[in-house]
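Q: Structure tokens for this one, please.
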Amino acid sequence: MASTQEIINALVEGLQEKKGRRICVADLSRFDTAPARAFVICSGGSPQQVDALADSAEEFCRKQLGEKPAAVAGRNNAQWVAMDFGDVILHIFLTEARDYYDLEHLWDDAELTTYPDVD
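A: Here is the predicted structure, written as tokens:
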């Protein structure tokens, strides 16, 4: 079974492969009530890109670590896709939806790690 950090690394790599924007990891490990140890959050510019980002992140996790999400929600409208990798939940948003829900700041004291956009 892959570690939390290995899953995060594979997901981020998959998101960067398809030019995901504003990639951020919220470390939730110190919150007893959090649904996971970490959230990986990313933006896509269109429903098609959100779908491609989800495919790429899932493929990188499967190929590198043999890990698949336990559950996936939101693939039908591709405005907000959530993928449950156990200790890590991946959230891929259309930009407007991400700004509205502002998941990064749901846990105010969570440590945030941001990744550069790849062009």
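A few notes: Residues 47-65 form the longest helix (19 residues). Helices lie at 4-17, 47-65, 95-101.
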